[in-house]
Amino acid sequence: MEKDFTLNLDNNILTVVLGEQLTTSNAPALMEELNAYKGQTIEKVIFDASKMTYIASSGIRTIIFAKQKLGGNPVIEFKNCAPEIRSVFEMTGLQNYITFVSE
């Protein structure tokens, strides 16, 4: 599995810097790393999507996992998300669970 992301936990905020794609080749590795934070009080998960150009259904499942399974019912934030990626979330109805931020 290819790892195209980094995670950093700071004061109950988990930042995930994503690479160009979140697909079946790297989403399972991201889910596995997110799983290590289960049970902790995570207030917010920030997905930095500045480089992201494509998200597959396995990537979307990983985002849902972050919302449902991490401790503390975290806020999910997508930072610098391309319009094409945001439209995928809107088509799936997940935009109600995600805050989109541009910097």
Task: Explain this structure.
The protein is an alpha/beta fold and 103 residues long. It has a domain at 39-97. It contains 3 helices and 7 strands, in the order E-E-E-H-E-E-H-E-H-E. It has helices at residues 27-35, 57-69, 83-92; strands spanning 5-10, 13-18, 21-22, 44-48, 54-55, 75-79, 98-101. It has a 5-stranded mixed sheet, covered by helices on one side. Strands 3-5 form a two-stranded parallel ribbon. Strand 1 (5-10) and strand 2 form a beta hairpin. Helix 1 (27-35) runs parallel beside helix 2. The longest helix has 13 residues, at 57-69. The protein is globular. The mean pLDDT is 91.
What is the helix content?
A: 25-40%
Looking at the structure, what is the overall shape? Answer: globular
The termini sit apart by: 31 Å
**Order of the strands making up the biggest sheet:** 1-2-4-6-7
Radius of gyration from CA coordinates: 12 Å
Quote the average pLDDT.
91
Largest sheet: 5 strands, mixed
Beta-strand residue percentage: 25-35%
Number-wise, the strands total: 7
**Estimated structural class:** alpha/beta
Contiguous uncertain segments of 5+ residues = none
Multimeric organization: single chain
List keywords for this structure.
103 residues, alpha/beta, 5-stranded mixed sheet, two-stranded parallel ribbon, 3 helices, 7 strands, 29% strand, globular
